[in-house]
Design goal:
The protein has 3 helices and 13 strands. It has 206 residues and is α+β, with helices and mostly antiparallel strands. It has 2 domains: 90 residues, Ribosomal Protein L25, Chain P (Beta Barrel); 76 residues, Ribosomal protein L25, C-terminal domain (RNA Polymerase Alpha Subunit, Chain A, domain 2), CATH 2.170.120.20.
Length: 206
């Protein structure tokens, strides 16, 4: 379990939050059914590093002023352009109680024919925090146009319950989209221009 170091912070005005961010801190909050909401701050670089080492849907150990909390990252607010984290919400959990979360669906390989398309990018699950898988990976090698991968085709670890119907489609193999008439015409025009330019260059050389 990855650890995240934090510090308590006083409830401040907007300017105080902006100053925190300028100094490399990310304001956040930790809350839960058995604790009072606590305003905290964590170093942005350390938080980014922890999130790269471990999936965000897994539990983390949050250390704040000598206290330790088992938490999950409930929400991250990022800058719409820069992508840096602006605010982080951490929810305190009990490692012996089931949690509800989502797990991404990933694809490997290439179909024999067609293009594999994700119909659902994630699935809902319920399990103990320590049993949360980082992802469900599906091998689409050898599939053909019209083939589908259902929820029932996933390999589910012991102790994990899915929140979806077993017959729901996760991946569908579709035909490669034919070029539109406009794109074909534009390509033909471009080829003619290129041929004309080539002929002109040859005549100039002569």
């Amino acid at each position: 379990m990855e650890a995240i170091q934090g510090q308590s912070r006083a409830q401040g005005m907007g300017n105080s939050v902006k100053k925190l961010r300028r100094n490399g801190w990310v304001p956040g909050i930790v809350y839960g059914s058995d604790i009072t909401n606590q305003q905290i701050q964590v170093q942005g670089k350390e938080l980014d590093a922890a999130l790269r080492r471990q999936a965000t849907n897994k539990p983390y150990k949050l250390m704040v002023d000598g206290s330790s909390y088992d938490v999950m990252v409930y929400e991250l607010q990022r800058h719409p352009v820069m992508g840096n984290i602006l605010h982080a919400d951490f929810k305190k959990i009990n490692m012996n109680e089931k949690v509800h979360t989502t797990v991404p669906v990933l694809m490997t390989g290439d179909p024999e024919l067609g293009v594999a398309t994700l119909v659902r990018h994630s699935v809902e699950i319920s399990c103990l925090p320590g049993n949360i898988p980082e992802s469900f990976t599906v091998d689409v090698d050898g599939l053909n146009i019209g083939d589908v991968v259902l929820v029932s085709d996933l390999v589910i670890p012991a102790g994990v319950e899915l929140g979806l119907d077993a017959a729901e489609v996760l991946i569908s193999v579709l035909p490669v989209k034919a070029k539109s008439e406009e794109s074909i015409e534009a390509q033909h025009d471009a080829e003619q221009v290129a041929e004309a330019a080539g002929s002109t260059e040859q005549s100039n050389r002569v």
